[in-house]
TrEMBL record:
<dbReference type="Pfam" id="PF00378">
    <property type="entry name" value="ECH_1"/>
</dbReference>
<dbReference type="GO" id="GO:0004300">
    <property type="term" value="F:enoyl-CoA hydratase activity"/>
</dbReference>
<keyword id="KW-0456">Lyase</keyword>
<protein>
    <recommendedName>
        <fullName>enoyl-CoA hydratase</fullName>
        <ecNumber>4.2.1.17</ecNumber>
    </recommendedName>
</protein>
<dbReference type="GO" id="GO:0006635">
    <property type="term" value="P:fatty acid beta-oxidation"/>
</dbReference>
<keyword id="KW-0443">Lipid metabolism</keyword>
<dbReference type="InterPro" id="IPR029045">
    <property type="entry name" value="ClpP/crotonase-like_dom_sf"/>
</dbReference>
<dbReference type="InterPro" id="IPR001753">
    <property type="entry name" value="Enoyl-CoA_hydra/iso"/>
</dbReference>
<comment type="similarity">
    <text>Belongs to the enoyl-CoA hydratase/isomerase family.</text>
</comment>
<dbReference type="InterPro" id="IPR014748">
    <property type="entry name" value="Enoyl-CoA_hydra_C"/>
</dbReference>
<dbReference type="InterPro" id="IPR018376">
    <property type="entry name" value="Enoyl-CoA_hyd/isom_CS"/>
</dbReference>
């Protein structure tokens, strides 16, 4: 049995679920889980039929509790350096997926677990969620993008509060701060995340991919450069078959049948 499972939802074209599947360890991120997540994201990135991804968990009480500290306790400095390369690839590749990624978070999402959610484009969390970056309390710092992605989401002072204190917050506070995009009822994070991904997957695949590319690449760029990035993405979309189908469907008052090319 693997630590990561890919579920393709044939009843919802284009929606693929990426499941953290190490429930006996609350999805603690081992080197093997990280390797499997790297392989899974590479598979999805290369599949043009994928329009939206949902990152979920099979563990009943946790989305992901972060790095496997039991494994960490058994490796030396050289082993930690080698593991770091795998972990860095895991976070980087998830962040770089060309389609929108929605995290469906329940239970504990701590350390690297919260960072996995931060690497997604949208976070849906239910009332059971417990969120935090406790790394400084165990002698490290967030290293899966937490210091950067959290600051970009929340601003300096709110991110500093969470990182420096290592405190845990519930989903309601996460939503107030802007860490959580959508709140779900207890037990409904996965269902609501899949519903959100279904809406996204119903739109132009070319348009959605290019919109994400423009937003990601332009986020930290000076405005003039960011507008050039947007223009390039617009041109890549406007002269595609998806644009022609979208305009035709609008005028014919029917649902588009996206070519996705």
């Amino acid at each position: 049995m693997g630590s990561v499972t890919i579920n393709r939802h044939d009843d919802v074209p284009g929606v693929t679920e990426l499941v953290l599947d190490r429930p006996e360890a609350h999805n603690a991120i081992s080197t093997e889980l990280a390797r499997q997540l790297v392989a899974a994201t590479a598979e999805l990135a290369a599949d043009p039929s994928v329009r939206a991804v949902v990152l979920t968990s099979s563990a009943p009480k946790a989305f992901c509790v972060g790095a496997d500290l039991k494994e960490r306790n058994s490796i030396d400095d050289d082993g930690l350096r080698a593991q770091r390369l795998v972990f860095r690839a895991m976070f980087t590749d998830l962040l770089a997926l060309p389609v929108p990624v929605v995290a469906g978070v329940h239970g504990y999402a701590l350390g690297g677990g919260l960072e996995l959610a931060l690497c997604c484009d949208l976070i849906v969390a239910d009332e059971s969620a417990v969120l935090g970056l406790p790394e400084v309390s165990v002698g490290v710092i967030p290293g899966g993008g937490g210091t950067q992605l959290l600051t970009r989401r929340l601003g300096w002072s709110r991110a500093a509060d969470l990182v420096f204190t290592a405190r845990r917050i519930d989903a309601a506070e996460g939503h107030r701060l802007g860490l959580v995009d959508r709140l779900a009822a207890a037990g409904a994070a996965r269902v609501d995340a899949l519903a959100l991904a279904t809406v996204i997957a119903g739109h132009s695949p070319v348009g959605v991919r290019n919109a994400k590319r423009a937003m990601r690449q332009g986020f930290d760029a000076p405005l003039a450069a960011a507008l050039d990035i947007e223009d390039a993405a617009w041109r890549a979309t406007a002269f595609s078959r998806d644009r022609k189908e979208g305009v035709a469907a609008f005028n014919e008052k029917r649902r588009p049948d996206w070519p996705g090319e």
